[in-house]
Design goal:
heterodimer, A: about 375 residues, alpha/beta, Aspartate Aminotransferase, domain 1, Aspartate Aminotransferase, domain 2, 2 domains, seven-stranded mixed beta sheet, four-stranded antiparallel beta sheet, globular, B: about 400 residues, Rossmann fold
């Protein structure tokens, strides 16, 4: 099987699974307990937190463990919006965010917050001028994904951060779920995010693991209240095995970033060139300026499902543009925002690479894809 | 590597007279101490400045990271060294200014020519270097009054030295230049901050902690050890004297009326601390007391507690607000340790209504009915002493999991 759906989820590394099992077996005490066993487990949790903090260039107490990207995004958006409504109720995001951001924004909109959605160009990138114009005195939050999950567009985070921090008091939240491990994303003073969300299962970690990290002490209301764990911001007994496994997955992803970036870029560029040989049968949504691990394309007048099935029969797993929305019938909001030609709108396919893919798989894929095109389109 | 040395400017030291030499010597010693894990450094000290020679990039980074914690340093700068040749000086200047190439900034070139045999005049050098940089760096413009970056070029006998960045130090006095004092370290937020502030004034610290097992746990002791260890990063090792306090504390509880309990307990602590102070040759006692914060910190209480000794009791936090103290604790990295929730000996037998205005005569009256002295002697004698930082290499026992 050739698994090219790594933006939906990844296969966990064996080392990560080993950590998960060993921590469950040997360090099962509650880290909040004051007996020696609990203290030892808490030390382990601290070590995991510190390791992640150093990767993101922040302090350990600004790293919180969550259940994943969706919770982290929800937490950031609701937490910041509610804690800062005395300053204002204007919040900004983009048209192409993940549902965990868009739905949170819509829910706030219903509660009386004023939302601006930034548009994107055909490469899926926002306009910094538009961002600057939309920022106001009462803007309290800007959420932006670093890499778009459906077609790989990269937002200019550093420039956006500078503009946001210079023109407003807004907190800049970056959804780095698709970028961490593929692109550099860190706290960097005024030239970077104030909040970063990441998810473990996109980087060969476990499902149900994630992080929300802060650059500094922020005014934010807790997402889950109770025993006051995680510095009072996210109560509930901390899932230590998950947290430690995530620290390991983060370290591996971070250490292999350069290598993977090079590999993925080469494969993506190679496949873009290959798809171009099919002329106007194929429309490529991704660009060589986008994230290296995501390649979205569409075959003229062909539904995505048909292509997925044809490839699947030959052992290749790809997805429609987004796994989270692929069961819904309507066209994706990202594809709508990109104003894709109607002939290509319903057939958007996403190939996404992961650390476990190989060069041979790319070559095999090309041959298989050729067969599929012959079968479905007669070319 | 571009950087050849770190130049250190002294702080308050420069105002000192004849004993200035001792201060400089102490500072040098403290710097060597704080970098003892990266091998022995070559340090040259002069009347106005000190120079640390750099061997590699890694060393440079560690020094820049840790030096801002060493008391007695006003500021420091990484310095590049090159041949006394105008072309080479221009190239070196360019390398330094490369660091700023991403933003548009104003700059000026400041030249000091102590080697008068160098064939170019100060102004010529200034013009040659400044002109060269302007020509090759479109992001630069000149501002002689208030530049963002001042590139300093010094032509000395042996070579030319260039520097641009000034990093602020921790100021204060080198730890050890103002004698030794004994810090009463409880494990709370205040006492480590008090220790830090005294260290900033050059005072070398020993710490004393009152340990009452089984009422207080090993974890609460570990917390105090961690605090002592944390304070060592400001340029000095710290000894921690752990006093077995249970026996005496129980005796006080059984013999003194409840509302006097706290006052007597504090007085006994002070007596013990004073005995330890005497043994180690320290000159003062340091506490984290802040006026009015709790019952034991009213002026009446302080008077009653203080009455057991004539030793100077230093209370650097006396006039501080709790929030100010927390701020410092966070800055110096002790806060996260201090807020860990373990009982200490001061909280286990707290009476419901401690006297905020204890009368000294009443306190001494009750204390006179019991012979505390032999207990005090035993506690002092049976203390355990730990030295931080601990010599053994702390191995990361969780490494394979992470």
């Amino acid at each position: 099987m050739i698994y090219f759906d790594n933006s939906a989820t990844t296969k966990a590394h064996d080392e990560v699974l080993q950590t998960f099992v060993e921590v469950n077996k040997n360090y099962y005490a509650n880290p909040a307990s004051i007996h020696a066993f609990g203290v030892e487990v808490n030390e382990l949790l601290d070590a995991a937190r510190s390791q992640i903090a150093s990767i993101f260039n922040t302090k350990p107490e600004y790293v919180l463990f969550t259940s994943g990207g969706t919770e982290s995004n929800n937490f950031a958006i609701f937490g910041v919006a509610k804690a800062n409504q005395h300053i204002g109720k204007h919040i900004i995001t983009t048209e192409i965010e993940h549902a965990s951001v868009l739905e949170a924004y819509k829910s706030l909109e219903k509660e009386g917050y004023e939302v601006d959605y930034l548009s994107v160009n055909k490469n899926g990138v926002i306009s910094l001028d538009e961002l600057r114009e939309k920022l106001r005195k009462d803007t309290i939050l800007v959420t932006m994904m670093h890499v778009n999950n459906e077609m790989g567009a990269i937002q200019p985070i550093e420039e956006a951060a500078k503009i946001i921090h210079e023109h407003s008091r807004a907190i800049f939240h970056v959804d780095a779920v698709q970028s961490f491990g593929k692109l550099n994303i860190q706290f960097n003073g005024e030239a970077g995010p104030d909040i970063i969300s990441i998810s473990g299962h996109k980087i060969h970690g476990l499902k149900g693991t994630g992080i929300i990290a802060f650059q500094r002490k922020l005014n934010i209301v807790p997402y889950i209240v109770g025993g006051g764990q995680e510095f009072g911001l996210r109560s509930g007994t901390v899932a230590v095995p998950q947290a430690v496994a995530l620290a390991k997955a983060c370290r591996i992803a971070f250490e292999n970033l350069q290598e993977n970036h090079g590999k993925f870029t080469k494969w993506r560029d190679d496949l873009i060139d290959y798809f171009k040989t099919f002329g106007n049968h194929i429309y490529i949504l991704s660009s060589k300026e986008g994230a290296p691990h995501i390649l979205s394309f569409s075959i003229r007048d062909l539904k995505g499902e048909v292509i997925i099935n044809a490839l699947q029969k030959r052992g290749v797993i790809v997805s429609t543009s987004s796994a989270c929305s692929s069961k819904q019938k309507k066209t994706s909001h990202v594809v709508e925002a990109l104003k894709v030609d109607p002939h290509f709108k319903e057939g958007v396919i996403r190939i996404s690479f992961g650390a476990k893919n190989t060069e041979e798989e790319i070559e095999q894929f090309k041959a298989i894809f050729k067969d599929v095109m012959k079968e479905l389109k007669g070319v | 590597m571009l950087w050849k040395e770190i130049l250190i400017r002294y702080g308050e030291l420069t105002t000192k007279g004849r004993n200035r030499k001792d201060f400089i010597h102490q500072l040098k010693h403290n710097i060597k101490y704080i970098f003892s894990d990266i091998g022995s450094l070559t340090i040259r000290s002069e009347r106005d400045r000190m120079h640390i020679e750099l061997e590699n990039e890694e060393q440079f980074e560690k020094i820049v990271e840790r030096l801002p914690r060493v008391f007695g340093i006003q500021s420091f700068s990484p310095v590049a060294m090159c041949e006394k040749d105008l072309g080479v000086i221009q190239q070196t200047a360019q390398k330094i200014m490369d660091r700023y190439k991403d933003k548009s900034i104003t700059f000026k070139v400041e030249v000091h020519r102590s080697d008068k045999s160098f064939p170019y005049q100060t102004y010529d050098i200034q013009k040659a270097v400044g002109g060269f940089l302007l020509k090759h760096n479109p992001n630069l413009s000149v501002d002689v009054k208030n530049p963002d970056v001042e590139l300093r070029v010094e032509i000395r006998k042996e070579a030319a030295y260039l520097m641009s960045e000034i990093i602020y130090g921790a100021a204060g006095m080198p730890v050890g230049s103002n004698g030794r004092s004994l810090l009463l370290l409880s494990g709370g937020i205040d006492s480590p901050v008090a220790g830090y502030l005294m260290m900033k004034r050059g005072v070398r610290i020993d710490a004393i902690h009152f340990f009452s097992p089984p009422y207080t746990s090993e974890q609460s002791l570990q917390k105090v050890k961690d605090l002592a260890n944390e304070l060592t990063k400001f340029g000095s090792s710290i000894r921690l004297h752990v006093i077995p306090f249970t026996e005496l504390q129980v005796l006080i509880k059984d013999t003194v009326p409840a509302e006097m309990l706290m006052t007597t307990t504090r007085r006994m602590m002070m007596k013990i601390a004073d005995r330890v102070r005497e043994e180690i040759g320290a000159l003062g006692l340091v506490t984290g007391e802040s006026l009015g914060q709790v019952a034991s910190q009213t002026l009446e209480s302080l008077t009653a507690i203080n009455a057991v000794t004539n030793t100077p009791i230093l209370r650097p936090l006396l006039s501080f607000d709790k929030l100010e103290i927390i701020d410092i604790a966070q800055q110096i990295g002790t806060y996260e340790i201090s807020i860990k929730p373990y009982e200490d000996c001061c909280t286990i037998f707290t009476p419901a209504n401690p006297k905020t205005r204890p009368k000294l005569e009443r306190v001494t009256h009750f204390e006179s009915q019991v012979d505390f002295d032999e207990y005090i002697e035993r506690a002092v004698k049976n203390r355990e002493v730990y030295t931080f930082p601990e010599k053994r290499i702390a191995e990361n026992k969780f490494k394979h999991l992470l």
